[in-house]
Design goal:
Structural class: alpha+beta
Distance between the termini: 19 Å
Shape: globular
Number of strands: 11
Strand order of the largest sheet: 4-5-6-7-11
Radius of gyration: 16 Å
CATH topology: Glutamine Phosphoribosylpyrophosphate, subunit 1, domain 1
CATH superfamily: Aminohydrolase, N-terminal nucleophile (Ntn) domain
Number of helices: 4
Strand content: 25-35%
Number of domains: 1
CATH class: Alpha Beta
Order of helices and strands: HEEEEEHHEEHEEEE
Largest sheet: 5 strands, antiparallel
Oligomer: single chain
């Protein structure tokens, strides 16, 4: 995990939008999930987890309007089965759902759809959110379960340089990230995820 988290820390530190309102990661260990969260910016946190895993999710937070900066609001969110991360901005959202912050409400809302099939949940749930939202600046998310299944969705209305996710093989690992790792030998081989894409790894 260390080289992936180090690359992600550098991306967060260099981001044009501040990503220092805490961070978190979730990974598979001994067949189950482990979750780590901290209020430090990821690039300043000496406690970043180490070791090996088959699945890792990491998220650096930029709190909307600087509100709700508490460690329990850091992603990944975890429901006992799945881990969830979100990058986006929604304006005028009209959904009723439990959750401390908007991203957690999105996670809980999409799980209502699809009868346990996360691919169907994303298709139906994200369409329902879009219909109930005045403006979707971006709605990117990743949901993973302990079996190793990773679902993702990418939708943005502006600024593809910032919001378009990219995928690559990095030293044998399949990586989905907000942008290519800095200084990676594979930097030119990162493939953009199309807008309005929903898929699974």
């Amino acid at each position: 995990m260390a080289p992936h988290l180090a690359a992600f820390a550098e991306l967060a530190r260099a981001s044009r939008e501040y990503q220092g309102d805490g961070w978190g990661c979730a990974w598979i260990e001994d067949g189950g999930w482990r979750v780590y969260r901290d209020l430090s910016p990821i690039w300043e946190d000496p406690g970043r987890p180490e070791g090996r895993t088959t699945l890792l999710l990491a998220h650096a937070r930029s709190a909307f309007r600087g509100e709700g900066i508490r460690v329990e609001n850091n992603m990944p969110f975890f429901d006992g089965e799945r881990a969830f991360i979100f990058n986006g901005e929604l304006h005028g959202v009209r959904i009723r759902e439990r959750g401390r912050i908007g991203a957690e409400k999105v996670f809980n809302f999409i799980k209502r759809f699809g009868g346990g099939d996360m691919g169907v949940s994303l298709e139906r749930g994200l369409d329902a959110i879009a219909k109930r939202t005045r403006y979707v600046r971006a709605l990117n998310l990743v949901v993973a379960d302990a079996s190793g299944r990773v679902h993702f969705a990418s939708r943005f209305s502006e600024d593809p340089e910032y919001f378009q996710m990219r995928a690559a093989e990095v030293e044998g690992a399949r990586v989905l990230c907000s942008e290519p790792y800095p200084d990676s030998a594979e930097r030119l081989a990162w493939t953009p995820i199309p807008n309005d894409a929903i898929g699974a790894l």
